């Protein structure tokens, strides 16, 4: 897997609103996705493409991952979305997000189109990534094939609203538990997406929580997917960003401990440490499995820009 790029918070920004596009540049989200799909009315889509190209080329996005969500392949807009955005601002774009992905062929079609546009515009072929959004029963059935459909794949994303409609779920509350169901009705879906993402070595991103002013409820939902191992979550309102950034990053204590495990295991397996397969870190025994778990936590902390507050000292 390539070095992790932090995607704790993934901010949705409607491409039809230049004011929102400008405001998003100054918000502390790890990723912004400039939206041409659900956030744009059909008549507003042509103008939104131009807004997005201008906003990307103007710069000012800092270290944010810059993504554009195009319309899905069943519409008449997808080709023109990709052509105008990548042709007009491909050098200032990191990923294209493809919604409602049904099968691997749709990812491959986007890959081929991107390659053609990159070649035609003198862009580095293959640099622009693809983020695949799973929003239907058909997409979930095919999620493993979707994850492996292209080397460009960087994330697999859960789209709860359309998915709920796809399976006829009896709820209008998107992304939250339901009092009539004794458990988490999204657990199976999230785990399927997570397994596909991890098998492919890419990131898994949870979808939005629509009650945008209820930050405590957002935090409750986010903690569940973060505990499973998801790398981040969509945010629809600036008020959700700080919560996502905190929840999908390790705590300082866990980050420090992970780095200590890595240092201690590295020393224990070295010549100086006696070439041991396991060692003690305080009262804790660590081994290769410990190293792998610590690498995950440390990787997320590093990607989030965290700094250590402790250091390892080899035993006498």
Describe the structure.
- There is one protein chain.
- The protein has 316 residues and is an alpha/beta fold.
- It has two domains: 9-248, Phosphoenolpyruvate-binding domains (TIM Barrel), CATH 3.20.20.60; 252-304, no CATH class.
- It is built from twelve helices and ten strands.
- The protein has helices at 18-24, 45-58, 78-89, 104-120, 137-141, 143-147, 160-166, 187-200, 215-228, 241-247, 252-268, 288-303, and strands at residues 9-14, 31-35, 65-69, 95-98, 129-134, 153-158, 203-206, 232-235, 279-281, 284-286.
- It has an eight-stranded parallel barrel, surrounded by six helices. A two-stranded antiparallel ribbon has the order 9-10.
- Helix 4 (104-120) links the parallel strand 4 and strand 5.
- Helix 2 runs parallel beside helix 3 and helix 11 (252-268) packs across helix 12 (288-303).
- The two termini are 36 Å apart.
- The model has no long low-confidence stretch (mean pLDDT 94).
- This is Citrate lyase subunit beta/citryl-CoA lyase.
- Its cofactor is Mg(2+).
- Pfam families: HpcH_HpaI.
- One of its GO terms (biological process) is oxaloacetate metabolic process.
Core attributes:
316 residues; alpha/beta; TIM Barrel; 8-stranded parallel beta barrel; two-stranded antiparallel sheet; 10 strands
Draw up the topology in text.
Elements: E1 9-14, H1 18-24, E2 31-35, H2 45-58, E3 65-69, H3 78-89, E4 95-98, H4 104-120, E5 129-134, H5 137-141, H6 143-147, E6 153-158, H7 160-166, H8 187-200, E7 203-206, H9 215-228, E8 232-235, H10 241-247, H11 252-268, E9 279-281, E10 284-286, H12 288-303
Parallel strand pairs: 1-2, 1-8, 2-3, 3-4, 4-5, 5-6, 6-7, 7-8
Antiparallel strand pairs: 9-10
Helix pairs in contact: 2-3, 3-4, 11-12
